[in-house]
Amino acid sequence: MVKPLCATGVAFAYEPGDPILRHVDLRLEPGELLALIGPNGAGKTTLIRVLAGIFDADAGDVRIGDRPLATLSTRERARDIALVPQELGLPGDVTVETFVEGGRYAHLGFFRRATPEDRQAVDRALAATELTELRERRLAEMSSGQRQRVLMARAIAQEAGTLLVDEPTASLDARHQIQTFEHLLDLVRDGHAALVITHELNLASQFATRVALLHEGRIAATGTPTEIIRPEVLEPVYGSDLHYGELATSPWNEPRPFVVPWKRG
Amino acid sequence: MKLDRAPKIPAAVLFGVLPPALLLLVLGSVRYGSSGAGPDSLGAMFAGLLGAFGLDALAPGAPLDSTTQAIVELRLWRALTAAGVGGALGVSGALLQGLLRNGLASPTILGVNAGASLGASIGIILMGGYGPRLLLGLTEQNPSVLPAVFAFLGALGVSFLVLTLASHGSRVSVPTLLLVGIAMNTCLGGLLSAIQSLTLEDYELSRAIISWNFGNLDDKSATHVVILAVGLLATSLTLPFLALELDLFRGGEEDAEAVGVNAQRVKILAVGAAALSAAVATAVAGQVAFVGLIVPHVIRLLVGSGHRSLLPLSILGGAVFLLGAEFAQLVLLGERAMRPGVLMSLLGGLFFLALLLRNRKELQSW
Fold it and tell me: Residue A235 maps to which CATH number?
């Protein structure tokens, strides 16, 4: 069962006196694809790491279901929450399959032996990301787009209800950008919860169920894409060089706004 | 640690080749080793080996004369000590290279060697008449005990001091660990030089201290082998709980935590196991450099960086490497053979340089 992830009054600083997150309230429900947007340096990656339990919040609390993250062991936490980082310094000599198997760590027993169930989960994750054919391939031999899929595959193999994804489309071409969000959409329609950091406002607009705008350490606005992708909300954060419009169709079969950076003459 | 090339050979090949190679080297060392004429036939050699374990009743022929029997035993314990020291240093290096994600890490970085040297020097000074008479009386029976015990305590003590200094709260920072290790090595190096300069007037004493730093595999007994075996066993027991974890560390510590690895526990367990095995090896055989650096490095080049193979193969590889080098120089140089620490420094340095030059292109992308 997928549990809601809930942050209340979260504050975090790397250096005392220089807070990155000041007061963040955020709730992620099962079935939601929440796009976290915000300018560079807003603290998006820091927030996702606090939500994943990698960093402990200085103030406020983060709960998965009714349990505070701080009371969970790393293994328990990893069974509920999967973090998909931006491209890592991936070990090049490792095969796709071995890397994806790493996602099963939190499910392994005392002697760390993989069961048939673990192998099936890996197979399903490889199939879902269209990597079955490439399972013997070493990571050094793959393109950055393929590696992005490998990271996603490992998170799927982890079988956590909640996925926290950090800029999954940063190094992808347009086709693979769409494909990545389609994967996330499938997972969400299966009942997962996903929070995705992205600078691609238009991908956020068409795929997300909800958009949250992080600015100066707080959630400045949250709502449906139609409520967020409009000048009154975005201009104070991104400036006025944006051109807005609307397209009639979207993956959710409803009109969604779009926005293009466009310098006015 | 960037390593993008495919493994050259399957790990199973090394698992198949190294144990028989090790056995052959042990038998070869007993048959053709040091300390005068040994057993004159294979039959005599096996009789001697059975005798070494108190099983002479099982030997088919007549028992060996006591001199030959003693030579067999001396050579056997020497060979097993060399194998055990090599294995312990090999696995220690493999654990630290995996944890620090740096193929140039070795037990030295934890201050194990410097700590052991300091401990041994203090032990030697205490024995040399500067210590209380009680300790002197205690060590008359077995003069090598005190430096060995002090070396062990020094190695373990310094590595845990490095670990503690590199920790902030309960978190151990890997980059800080490397830097604190370097600083600690510098401090202890200064202390050692101070001790050596202060004891320079006492010829016997300074000779003993310098000699300890060359390593020593002579005059080993079953006790040394048992100490090594216990240390290696304790280290081996941690390996099933570190192999997969160190694999997951390859993507970085935070990434390992994200898939559920308890990074703090892994760091403490890995450093503890690495320090223990290196401390035991150094206490038994003195300073033997480079084994902990080269062996895991070469094994990784051959079979890849998966720790389920890399860690046990580093034990086997270290054992074969050190015993093989010892055996080779006994056969080639006879009585003029060099001390193991000296041999490894000469051989290891050159070997490592050649390895780095061969991979120069790859290294430029670090």
Answer: 3.40.50.300
